[in-house]
Write a structure and sequence with these properties.
It is built from 5 helices and 4 strands. The protein is an alpha+beta fold. It has one domain. A 4-stranded mixed β-sheet has the order 1-2-4-3. The relative contact order is 0.09.
Length: 145
């Protein structure tokens, strides 16, 4: 397994430093905000954004972890993704299928809160060239005098 190979090659030895930033008890789960850099250095070099015990065996059952680097306003979308994925996997759905459904649910929730995606008709940059997008939306450096 490639994941085991990566862990063996990349993880730091020794005791894992404290990586828990915050815990919140919800009705059916505990949300844990973690320092993802420490998790990647000591537990799993592939951990990103969030996860649960059905994907990451080191996460205790009943907990959903979200990386502290995820901005607070983004966390509800990541949490929704993890909840959908965990529910489907607990019913026997494979990770790949559950992840697809969870990604679709996450995108739908983002749309409900004003998000959009490049393949949609109302994507604001669909009629713009790369140069127009750069000129309109990117910060330009001004020469100093």
């Amino acid at each position: 397994m490639f994941r085991k190979y990566l862990a063996k090659r990349l993880l730091k030895p020794g005791p894992t430093p404290n990586f828990i930033e915050h815990r919140e008890l919800h009705l059916f789960f505990r949300l844990v905000i973690v320092d993802g850099a420490i998790v990647r250095q000591y537990l799993d070099p592939e951990f990103t954004q969030g996860g649960h015990h059905l994907v990451y065996p080191y996460i205790p059952k009943g907990e959903i972890w979200i990386e502290k680097a995820v901005r607070p306003k983004e966390r509800p979308f990541i949490l929704n993704h993890e909840l959908v994925e965990r529910r489907l996997m607990s019913r026997g759905t494979s990770y790949d299928a559950a992840h697809e459904y969870a990604t679709a649910a996450e995108k739908d929730l983002r749309r409900q809160h004003g998000g959009f995606y490049p393949t949609e008709d109302y994507y604001p940059w669909s009629k713009l060239t790369d140069r127009q997008i750069r000129d309109k939306f990117y910060v330009h450096e001004h020469p100093t005098t």
